[in-house]
Fold:
Amino acid sequence: MPPKTMYTARFPLLIVCVVALVAACSSPLPTLAPENGGAEGPDSAQPGVAELERLLGNDEKDYPLYGGDVIRITVQGHSELTVERKIPASGQIPLYGLDTVDEKGNPSVTEIDVAGLRIPDLEKKLATLYARIVNPPYVTVRVAEYAPKVIYVAGAVGAPRDYRLPDETRISLVQALTMAGWFTADAAKDRVRVIRVDPTTGKRVHLPAIDVTKIIASGQTNYDILLLPGDTITVDSHESKMVSIFGHIERPGEYPWTPGLTLTRLITLSGGFRTFAKMTNIRVLRSGGDSNSEDGAYHVDLKEVLDGEAPDYPLQPGDRIWIDERFI
Structure:
């Protein structure tokens, strides 16, 4: 793992690199399938430079907080206000002792949104709140426990599957590709694509295609992109005859496509669903095809298929299947 100092100058050059890549193309850069030829919904738009700045960050302190992280909040000189909070799926945590009341005059609990915030931004937000009762408030926040987080690597790499991220250190795109066994012989190294889940909105954002050959040829790791939990890296193949499945499935990864392969058959091949897998909204990303939804994906209710109310879904080479989590 490279030292943290290698990241300090990464971000400005990364933005320049992305802008240069966009400007160098005579036509718009392709995004992750199935947006090519499909309807562009709120999850499929490419971010601009300002949006990239917010999404990418430049070093570890720009790590956004996620559901499942446990944070410790300390107000200097006020031990009674020191608390630990696990961030729930809603992204909101309760705070006590702020002397707030409801419209009837009863004590009220203050809930604040923290998912997606960077620690310095959260400290400023908390300082504003605690200024009601402490003058001046000195608030510090640290991550007491990181939730398990993964990235997904699919397509023309040696070992496509999900990979656990280190807790405190972000890794780069090139490092992730190395973890995944690097490129296969038929990989399109100039068309590496990244889907990022915006921790603030929960929407999937498709970053511009990245030419890894230029990163390697230049020898400048500043052009490399830092990854975040939930990122999906896809490497196109010049002649793809594979399908990939990720999410809440027992054996996520890439599987050979054969004529007649269906969604239920692929789920069986990949070991079946994990606990809390969402069967009623399975998403299929398809290159160059239409979709049945605004987010550019086919949405399949497998429960209807298993109940005989809908036909099994036929798969095509290059399809990418996503099994979401069912929240209880």
In short: The first strand starts at residue 70 and ends at 75. The two ends are 37 Å apart (CA to CA). The CA atoms of residues 208 and 287 lie 16 Å apart.
